[in-house]
Amino acid sequence: xNKMMPLIQDDAFGPDVLRAMSTALEEVCRMLEVGNDQAAxxxxxxxxxxxxxxxxxxxxxxxxxxxREAGATPSVSMPRQxxxxxxxxxxx
Length: 92
Known about the structure:
Layout: H1 15-31, H2 38-53, H3 59-69, H4 81-85
Helix pairs in contact: 1-2, 1-3
């Protein structure tokens, strides 16, 4: 969670949302095998923050959305109908 803090210093996320965002980030990075690539982690974190700003607070939906946008295979991340209806755009 500390790695996200500089990116969200102007936002007022509660502890539950911060926890969801952190969980989603760690899972995305693990599943995409990002490792210690800080630039890649930051791209994923920025997208998760953007989705949270739009109201998405569920860690699984955050994870699945970012994985799908990153081009993860359907076996890793199955899109959900609710996610497809409120598509704010591509990852990059």
